[in-house]
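Quick question: what would this complex look like in 3D?
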Amino acid sequence: MSESATLAGKPRFMREEPRPAITPAQEAAIPRWIAEGPAALADLRTAAFSALKKTGLPHTGSEDFSFIRVGEFLPHLGPPARFSGSSSGASEAPGAQTAPDAEAASDAGTESTRLAGGLPTSADVEAQLVDEARRSYAVLVDGNYVPELSKPGHGFRISTLSQGSLAAPVRAELIRIASEETDAVAALGMIFARDPLVLQVDAEAVPAEPLLLLHFHTGSGVRSDALIVYHGAKLSEAGVLVRHASLADSDTPPGAVATGSMENVHTVALLDEAASLRFLEAGAAADSASKANALIRDIHFRKLTARLDRNGRLQAVSAHTGSRLTRNGFSVDLAGEGAEAEVDGATVLTGNRQSHNFVRVRHLAPHCVSRQHFKSVAADQARSSVDGTIYVAKGAQQTNAYQLINNLMLSDEARADSKPQLMIFADDVKCSHGATSGKLDPAQQFYLESRGVPPAQARALLTVAFIAEVLEKAGRAGFREALDRALLDTLKNRLPAVSEGSRHV
Amino acid sequence: MTASKYILEIKGVEATIGEPGDVTQILKGINLSVKPGEVHAIMGPNGSGKSTLSKVIAGHPDYEVTRGEVLFNGENILELEPDERSRKGIFLGFQYPVEIPGVNNAEFLRMAYNQLRKAEGKEEADPLDFEEILDAKMKALDMDSRYKERSINEGFSGGEKKRNEILQMAVLDPALAILDETDSGLDVDALKIVAGGINRLRGPGKAIVLITHYQRLLDYVQPDVVHVLSGGKIVKSGGKELALEVEKQGYDWLVK
């Protein structure tokens, strides 16, 4: 189609296929939800709703969900019960399942009553802090900002979207992004996120400490939608660190919540000219039995949407251990000349856990650079995938882009899929991509063993070393430790020698 | 220290490599006895089985010993895993040391060192104490302290890798060191330094087996016994004059 070849146009990454639209329940509920919600959010929600209607719900043949069983998460996509219209909606179609009562009750409550009982304690918060952001953090519970537990550091202006603190052009850009959303789950998130958190860094500001975003998930058995909007003004330079933690009750025996919860967390980063953002995200650590159970039960959708203006800089590193189903989306637009983005992912999966990365990097202007490196370790029957496309628009000359996917398989039953794609509509570009899948190198293993390192420890050491290459990009020690923990606690269960091995990497 | 009069005894060892259906016999009956305090040199043309012999002693999983025994201090080690052999005091210096990105050189050395101490029933070394040991060994090998920060052999030149092998040997202080072409890829200065490292290991309870193509290393590390390996067998053994003979005349006169 011709529009895909224009700079401003919106390229389609998939073939147009007949797809089911949204369910009648959603069709009925969403306008009511918008009408009854804060007027200040209506434009965003309306834009996302129009995008959702265009995109439709994912279905088995959806190319954007090639490696995922759509049926796993479709039942979680319904509107909150109070807005789900007729009760028949629960059974008539996928996506229309009625959410449990807890959600309906919470809809009616105020911020504080809604969160009562599910709030993390200050000790919970303290446990998640990292050295480099000890005086700069914001706490969210199921996507809702909790100011009384937060302590944003100097240089970050924090508000919520309904407070109207975004300048008109920035807000317009956010609305545009919502209206062009092609990911149905992200669109739903933008509709149902209660009052998105807004982080702003003023022009030329360089906060000394990064801001740590602490996402606590109560695991209440329903879907929670979070939207965070970051705006970095011209020449600003900041870091946002993201940690996820489960507040799952440690008394909950495995399997007690049959369906698990769905966490839908979407961060939209808008970077003005020469603004720079480091965005590091660590998944929840499986550092206790209850947390591990939550990971087995729950569905995690995370997405980073970023738009970089001229000479903007983005570095994104995400480290996850997967869950019943985890999907990490990255949608990065290099919209101004000279913008540069690095997107890296590290995943360690054990048991039946899954993690799927879905990456779209679009070069929309000349002289932009993008680099992607995804590394996954899959043990047992775990499954991972990377579906990544580099798109170069017509006119985006002198693009320099690459993508590398490396998979390490620790068992014959593990599976890793790679789908690297290039779509290039300019003729003077340098683009490359590659993917490898393999086992541990026996020569390396023998070398370590020949020096007296026991086989299990040698394997652990090499596995950690494999993943460390991506983690090292996260740089500074404090958060690196959080990333390590997120991954290595998982590996420890699988490879007991890892705790010793990791100290040596 | 041991009931056996030999540190290493290789008795009639035959070894193969390959998958079933595609098996190649490389060692065809090796006999070799090394006493404590001795340095043996094994020379031989390419493909004679020198590297295979070293890997068989170290326990490389690609090789199958189909006949014979390898005794270390009187104990048959063929059933032991490579790491167990290492902790008993066998060290293999690789001809082509692998690069292991992501595993820090110094930390790895400390880990190996502590494994050894654990096997000997000793406590782990204090990190600062270990650093002192390491610094001294590195200084003796004229190695820059930068090598501590780097990943194992990553981006090292051929000579740097060989020096790193000798460093590992010095730290682990093995009873038996088998050095597979440790001299290749070294310029004269580096050769002298590496030879110095090897000579420092020499001692009454220790033995060294040098595998080499050329006699130049033997100018710096004087061997007690020289063997020539050809076609998977030792075809001649003698004193250090045998190495000079080989240097002068090549292998043809021995092989035919």
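Answer marked as accepted. The mean pLDDT of chain B is 93.
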